[in-house]
Design a protein that fits this description.
64% helix; 664 residues; Rossmann fold; six-stranded parallel β-sheet
Length: 664
């Protein structure tokens, strides 16, 4: 019988130690994965021994593995694979094959058995997708040349985990296994994968479409979890692994229109359970063994870093990448990855590696992951040294010059594809301003995509969605959604995540203005006030009030976020009224442009319908790169000149009408 209080205590201890380690490693700018591994070592039986229910931790770790591979599948769409097939197949395949072969030759020479040598090659061939992508994202290098080639290699490694796991039983039965039997196993697995993909292709999209129509985040989250765990269970019944089923489910959903929202729903679960998985791996680390064999483990870690750098560099250079890109990419891929722990745990249970080899590989993986951020920071200097002293190329040739990374910049994120969102998208498209539209309405997303809009299904209240649509590089977020509470949450989330982002909000209600401003909105446009502005503007135009006077009235009303209109009892606020009256009384300045076909081109200043008698003063004539202050009556006007006029509202309006005549 499960001792519930003991389980809860152990779970609380696990989360507390993991949080403390993550905070410490975060302050040191180290990987959170390494923090979880260290936390596990502290909690484990050779450390403080604080966890009694290790079976509970193992069960949660298995769920974490399934969720991890599911999210990997979400990132690997078939269309995306087609665009990166050269980097994935050639560079990724070359790196994995070279690492396995290199490890096999060295270990066979050292006296290891072939199954253990091949399995060790599997473990060492994988790099850390989580750490490498996090480092490159922090350095804004994901879209650089070395970032793209590294991503291709990592994608191949992630996919290679599946056949590696399937081959572990054959490696365990190395002496008795027949090639035909191994081939049959792979064919059966391939048939199971094909059947699962076909089933998922026709069932999952329809199910998701029906769930999305309910517009319930809770039901969507439960459905996604059910799909992940259910597909993993079915895969296990067909002779595959839990991880394989979850990976296939993610790969199918990656082609869905709802992939961004699904990823945002599953990421919190994935992060928690993944943390438990890495903690469970760290708990297996034998600290006394590490202390006794520290010099050997340090030497082996350096050897692994050097060997993987050489293998990855050879694969990248084979595609004729510049030396700088080759070295930086290879150094970034030198660590042992998180999926290596998955293979290592499985291989240890199957008896492919002994306790000593298992502890050595585990310690090597942890150490190489910890040093990755420092190696990535030093990679450009290492590349420079390599070019100067090894290939003796002090400067890159023009053909090898690395292109600057292309990142989305200054784009507008439009949240909501209703009438306001559609009109804004149309104007932005016609004026060439880059933008991305996000909406939670499935029908609107389909409609927009059919119209050629760049649209995503997602909730801007979720930081993951904002991150996926480039919130870090966007210039403005326009919230054109009709839900007041959702709008408030979105403003708060966006302001916390991106302090410099300009946030413009459309709202229906006057009461929302102050709250939205306090939450971080830069500009709030209430529909009620804009309707009022439009009404009085039309009335003034009907009475032939000059356009510049109408514009000034509109600017005054909109100033201070409609402060004048938001006063509950404006007549009692003497300061606001005085400001308003002073504005109406003051003189104004206007510019009049002398067009090439204007009747005033070639005329003298003295003939203009302006002067002190009419209450209008010509302050200056702006001509190209100079200003003629208080020009004389004999000054000849040129096409392109700008007249700076100063006067009262009515005289100025009359003067502008006179200047606009087609005859003198």
């Amino acid at each position: 019988m499960v001792d519930l209080p003991l389980v809860l205590r152990d779970l609380a201890v696990v989360l507390a130690i993991a949080t403390a380690a993550a905070l410490l490693f975060g302050r040191l700018h180290l990987s959170v994965v390494a923090a979880f591994l260290v936390a596990g070592a502290i909690l484990g039986p050779t450390g403080a021994g604080l966890v009694a229910e290790t079976r509970m931790v193992d069960a949660l770790a298995q769920i974490g593995v399934a969720l991890l591979l599911f999210t990997v599948g979400l990132e690997i769409s078939l269309s995306g694979l087609g665009k990166m097939r050269r980097q994935i197949l050639l560079a990724g395949g070359g790196q994995v094959a070279a690492t396995i072969l290199f490890s096999l030759l060295i270990l066979l020479f050292a006296g290891f058995h072939a199954p253990e040598a091949v399995f060790t090659g599997f473990v060492l061939s994988l790099s850390s997708t989580a750490i490498v992508m996090k480092v490159y994202a922090d350095r804004m290098e994901i879209d650089s040349s070395h970032g793209k080639i590294s991503l291709g290699v990592l994608l191949f490694q992630d996919m290679a985990v599946i056949p590696m796991m399937m081959l572990i039983p054959s490696l365990r039965q190395w002496e008795t296994a027949q090639p035909a039997a191994v081939l049959l196993t792979l064919l059966k697995a391939g048939a199971a994968v094909a059947g699962l993909l076909v089933l998922a292709r026709f069932v999952i999209p329809r199910l998701l479409r029906e769930v999305i129509r309910l517009n319930s985040r809770e039901i969507l989250a439960m459905t996604v979890l059910c799909l992940v765990l259910g597909t993993a269970y079915i895969a296990q019944l067909w002779g595959l692994s839990l991880a394989m089923g979850a990976f296939l489910a993610g790969m199918v959903i990656s082609e869905s229109d709802y992939v961004h929202e699904i990823a945002a729903q599953i990421f919190p679960f994935r992060d928690v359970f993944n943390g438990v998985f890495f903690i469970s791996v760290g708990m297996l680390l034998d600290l006394p063994f590490l202390a006794r064999n520290l010099p050997l483990i340090l030497f082996l870690s350096l050897a692994v870093l050097a060997g993987k750098t050489l293998c990855a560099g050879a694969a990248i250079r084979a595609l004729k990448y510049p030396w700088r890109v080759t070295v930086i990419g290879a150094v970034g891929l030198a660590q042992v990855g998180e999926f290596s722990f998955l293979l290592l745990s499985h291989g240890f249970r199957e008896g492919l590696v002994g306790t000593a080899a298992y502890q050595n590989l585990l310690a090597i993986a942890i150490l190489t992951m910890v040093v990755t951020p420092f190696l990535a920071g030093a990679a450009p200097r290492i590349a420079g040294l390599w070019e100067r002293h090894v290939v003796r190329s002090p400067l890159l040739s023009a053909g090898e010059a690395e292109l600057s990374p292309q990142r989305p910049e200054n784009h507008v994120i439009v949240a909501g594809y209703g009438m306001n969102g559609k009109n804004l998208a149309r104007v932005l498209r016609s004026t060439g301003v880059p933008y991305i539209v996000v909406d939670l309405n499935d029908a609107l997303v389909r409609e927009g995509r059919e119209a050629g809009e760049r649209m995503f299904y997602g909730d801007v209240n979720n930081p993951e969605i904002l991150d996926r649509v480039g919130g870090a590089f966007a210039r403005m977020l326009v919230l054109a959604i009709s839900d007041p509470m959702a709008t408030r949450r979105a403003v708060a989330v966006a302001r916390r995540a991106y302090p410099s982002l300009v946030i413009l909000v459309r709202t229906r209600y006057v009461a929302d203005v102050d709250d939205l401003i306090s939450l971080g909105a830069n500009t709030v446009i209430p529909e009620e006030f804009e309707t009022s502005v439009e009404i009085f503007s039309r009335v003034l135009q009907e009475y032939h009030v000059p356009d510049h006077v109408v514009r000034q009235q509109e600017e005054l009303i909109r100033s201070g976020t409609y402060r004048i209109l938001r006063e509950r009892v404006p007549s009692r606020n003497e300061a606001v009224l005085a400001e308003f009256e002073e504005f109406l009384r003051q003189n104004v300045i206007e510019l009049f442009h002398i067009a090439p076909d204007s009747v005033w081109a070639g005329a003298t200043v003295g003939k203009l319908p302006v002067g002190d008698d009419g209450g209008i003063v010509l302050l200056a004539v702006l001509r190209k790169d100079r200003a003629i202050i208080q020009p004389s009556p004999g000054e000849v006007l040129h096409p392109g000149d700008k007249l700076v006029l100063f006067g009262g509202h009515a005289p100025l309006a009359e003067a502008l009408r006179g200047l606009s005549r087609t005859d003198r």
